[in-house]
Amino acid sequence: AELANFHASEPYRDAPKGECRQKTTPVGKLFPANRFGLCDMHGNVWEWCQDVWHDNNYEDAPTDGTAWMEGGKQDRRVRRGGSCFHAPRICRSAFRAGGTPDYQDRDVGFRVVCVAAP
């Protein structure tokens, strides 16, 4: 519960129970950044991704880090990371959920990515 905003009253394995805030928190204020300097990558809010939803997880997915835009269900996109309302097993970047781009909820957001010019 000291590392991410999730439903900490349902800890993972032997982890201690923690505070369950049941609301989003300001990014970068309560939890430390990861090794890449990014804050709140797990929990807090689901993050919409550019990738098209594929039922087969990563079979035939790009390996160069680009968005997976070919094939799949073109009317659906990927959400990652769980939210403040979910148990820790869901609050990880590898956990995916799908949805239509018009889906809205209080625990769904996105992350703006900036790339420095060469």
Describe the protein in words.
By secondary structure, the protein is mainly β. The relative contact order is 0.24. A 4-stranded mixed β-sheet has the order 3-2-1-4, with no helix packed on it. It has no helices and 4 strands. The model has no long low-confidence stretch (mean pLDDT 89). The chain is globular and about 40 Å long.
What share of residues is helical? under 10%
Give the number of helices: 0
Overall mean confidence score, pLDDT = 89
- The SS-based structural class is mainly beta
**Poorly predicted runs of 5 or more residues:** none
Q: List the secondary-structure elements in sequence, H or E.
A: EEEE
Layout: helices, strands, pairs:
Blueprint: E1 46-53, E2 73-80, E3 96-99, E4 108-109
Parallel strand pairs: 1-4
Antiparallel strand pairs: 1-2, 2-3
Question: Short summary of the structure?
Answer:
0% of the residues lie in helices and 19% in strands.
Features:
four-stranded mixed β-sheet; mainly beta; 118 residues
